[in-house]
Amino acid sequence: AQSVSQHNHHVILSEAASLELGCNYSYGGTVNLFWYVQYPGQHLQLLLKYFSGDPLVKGIKGFEAEFIKSKFSFNLRKPSVQWSDTAEYFCAVNARTGGFKTIFGAGTRLFVKA
Amino acid sequence: NAGVTQTPKFQVLKTGQSMTLQCAQDMNHNSMYWYRQDPGMGLRLIYYSASEGTTDKGEVPNGYNVSRLNKREFSLRLESAAPSQTSVYFCASSEAWQKVDGYTFGSGTRLTVV
Q: Dihedral, CA atoms, B18, B6, A4, A74, nearest 10 degrees?
């Protein structure tokens, strides 16, 4: 079955530490990839997206993600996290082979210690 | 401000009661979606409407019905609520079904069924 896997359910970092959140998907063919962020008590907001072209995409607030087709991965990174990055992060995939339904991963809760 | 508006924000139901969650978007988007968010499971698609006049089942449609009232509005109905439907419900929209440029989410409805 087609799925989206996020490796870490909970991550705790200190401010200024580097962040990498893993995301793998099982879809074949062309995929559209997304990372969303949900700050405490808020709705999901789009952080960044990949459709085609340069596999390294940059989003808002200093986040970036790298699409590695051979590994079916789309990992999220940030060189130096801030306390305000405390949130839940969701990877999502939309693909023709999935009927264009966007499927979300289970999410990773990030807590950044001040 | 343009966006997706959901009502109500909070609701408590008794088992067996019915209710309708309302969603409206003012971005002239063609496609609308209902997701439920449960801890450790991410967002799961309940129903979607690729365009006005069409609706289709997502991953977890049992116990729910939807109505695409017009291009702006997409409601979700629980005919006989069950404790398993305790969740946070998010409505989302996108410009078009096959041109997914990311979703815009509403602020959510926190539903408790007792």
A: 180
